[in-house]
Write the structure tokens for this entry.
Amino acid sequence: MTEKIRVRIAPSPTGKLHIGNARTGLFNYLFARHYGGTFILRIDDTDTERSTPEAEKAIFDGLKWLGITWDEGPDIGGNYGPYKQTERFDTYKDALNRLLEDGHAYYCFCSPEEIEQKRTTAEKAHEIYRYDNTCRTIPLDEARKRIAAGERAVIRLRVPEGTEANFHDLIRGDIEVDSETFDDFVIAKPGGAPLYNFATVIDDHLMDITHILRGQDHLTNTSKQILIYRALGWDVPKFGHFSLILDTNRKKLSKRAGAVYIGDFQEQGYLPQTVANFIALIGWSPGENKEKMTMEEMVEAFSMDHVQKADAVFDPEKLKWLNGVYIREMPLENLVEAVKPHLRNAGFEVDNVDQEWLKKVVFLEQERMRLFSEASELFDFFFKEIPYDKSLLSSKKHSDDELARALEQTREQLEGISNWDKEELENLCRSLASQMGWQGGDLFMPLRIAVTGKKATPPLFETMEVLGKELSLKRIDKAIQSLKK
RNA sequence: GGCGCCAUAGUAUAAUGGUCAGUACAAGGGGCUCUCAAUCCCUAGAUAGGAGUUCGAUUCUCCUUGGCGCUACCA
């Protein structure tokens, strides 16, 4: 590619940053970086009813969190600004006027009610609704007079009969569209506020966008936009349409699927690099057996050749696995800091405790954690009293009485231990078990449950070491009591 | 309904006009081990169906079926 590449994402600030938008953004970013092009963020806020500043901020924050940076945008400016559509209305007005003067567009005075009625009538008759061109022949000066007199009118594009709007898609190849389906569609609301398809074309052209890479849900818009490019006499950019992300029921990813907004993943304790890495893998592969990649590696490897055509299901399980991979290789200090907010959230004291101790706690769980939000459950016995469940303690091999005696004996020996560290603990418990004629595990499991309240924990003696002598003995006592009841 | 897009194991994907269709997650089994995890080994599992082109198709063409998207004076 010799031309200077310019790509953009143009989200509308009507909600939080959706994972699909984030992926489209990421692909555009990777494409731009790979080819040394420019990546632009534009805010498509022509829908003033639904656009909010909060949503706009969520988009900025979400992209930044993922590590996606842009070269031009509403917050940092650039040579092709402004980068918000609401600030470009004059530009649209000019283009609209040109189209009107040239006869490529015309005013339409049909009311929404009339249109709606015609539409339903057509549907009832099992006919395809197309605008019936009622206002197509109204001369421009007459239309202007009527508007001046207070009538409301939208602006429609004049689409010649039999017009084709086929195009070549970078991902899908040649797309052929039945020209019968076009009608004179609306490009601006009364008052001249541009509609999405129109504003987008103007902006993409004026911002010198070379490749429009977006979701497959825009595939039908593309043909309409091509008609607008032609009416304006502009070159048509290249298009590529990514597949959609589906939930595990093969439906468009919705809130029911759990996390669908980038902020959700952040809250649940996913690492940004996990999420960026993983969403890149939905619908794209580096072409070799490689999955875990840094942003730099993805930039290096990215190519439209390996972008998938078929829709892809988002698999939350694999995301968790990947996050676990990243967590395991995190420096302990970072992990401690990452986990703290989640522990605080669960009501655990993490600030006024020995930080070295906290590090040990986190270290014990590092390879067991897939999500930061799992921390509170994994760690609870380090921070709060545990419930004693006799049935959990009981085993098939030994009676409760035997168990209680064994624990009493163990407790006694533990009491006199000189160095409360994992080696000592293990040596002592092992010899105790063999004295009793027990398998190590037969003693370790009740001990584990006594000190942690859980069957699955980090290695017992390391855990006891971190728990400390006092607390460990206290818990063993309680366990003995509950066994005797 | 109309228009469009898509189709490799449960999921994400790799590959070639011609070896046992490869990898990862998930699943099952095993090793290690005080449990869990991590890790290692093993197993099962896919080219939607039907025609055609071809010496040969999972790959190219067509049809069927299925899935999805769009069908606004939203974006």
Observations:
- The first strand of chain A starts at residue 6 and ends at 9.
- Chain A has a mean pLDDT of 92.
